[in-house]
Amino acid sequence: ARRAIELDPDSSAATMWQAFLETGPRRWAIWEDAISKVLQIDPNDPFALANHSALLGMVGRVKEAIAVRQQLVDLEPFIPGYAGNLADALWVDGQTEARIAIYKENLGRAGAGAEQALPRVYAALGRYQEAADSLSQLPSRGISRELSVTAEHLLRSAPAKVPAEKLPALGAY
Q1: φ, ψ for residue 138 (rounded to 5)?
Q2: Spatial distance between the Cα atoms of 87 and 92, rounded to a whole number of angstroms
Q3: Is the pLDDT of residue 162 over 80?
C-alpha cells in the first residue's frame, strides 16, 4: 500500500488499504482520517463509503451511518450486501419496518441476507405467522430443510411468549 501511494499519491484504494492494514481495533481516529482523505479525493468511492459507514456504526453514530449507507445503496444499487447493511443499521436505529421493507425488496438477491434475516426479524417481533411464512419460502441453501420445517412448525404453533431455549437456532447465529 505504501509503494502504491508513492507511485500515485491520489490513489483512494491504496490509501484505504494502508489505513485498513495499519489501524486495527481501537485506532479508529487514524482510520477516520484516512477515510476522510479518500473521500476528499473521490466522494463516491464505494470502498471508502462502506468503511466510513462501518466505522460510524461501530462508534455509535448510527444516524450518520444510515445516511452514508443510503448514499452507498443509491450509488451501487446492484450490490445486495449494501442493502442488507443499510437494513441492519436501520434496525439498530429502531426503524424495524424500514428494515423489513428493505429485506422484502431484496428477497432472492444473494448477498443481501434477506431470506435468512426476515424470519428472525418477524420472530423477534412476535410476528410468528409471518416468520413461519417467510421461513417456508426459504431456499434449501444455507439452512437444512429439516431444521426449516421444524422451526416453521414451532413458529406456527407459538403462543404469545415462547421460551427461547425451546427454539432451534436459525442460520449461523
Answers
A1: -65, 135
A2: 9
A3: no
Q: Mention every residue, 6+ apart, whose C-beta is less than 8 A from residue 166.
A: 154
Nearest to 55 by CA among 36, 42, 76: 36
Question: Looking at residue 84, what is its pLDDT?
Answer: 92
pTM over 0.85: no
pLDDT digits (tens, 9 = 90+) for 45-80: 898 899 899 889 988 899 999 999 999 999 999 999
Q: Is 112 in contact with 80 (CB distance < 8 Å)?
A: yes
Report the alpha-carbon distance of residue 132 to residue 150 in Å, rounded.
10
C-alpha cell at 126: 412476535
- The owner of cell 426476515 is 118
Cβ neighbours, 10 Å, residue 41: 13
The DSSP string of 65-114 is HHHHHHHHHHH-TT-HHHHHHHHHHHHHTT-HHHHHHHHHHTTT-TTS-H
- Is the distance from CB of 130 to CB of 124 less than 8 angstroms? no
Amino acid at 158: A
The pLDDT tens digits of the residues spanning 107-146 come to 888 888 888 888 889 988 889 888 888 887 776 555 566 7
d(CA 132, CA 135): 5
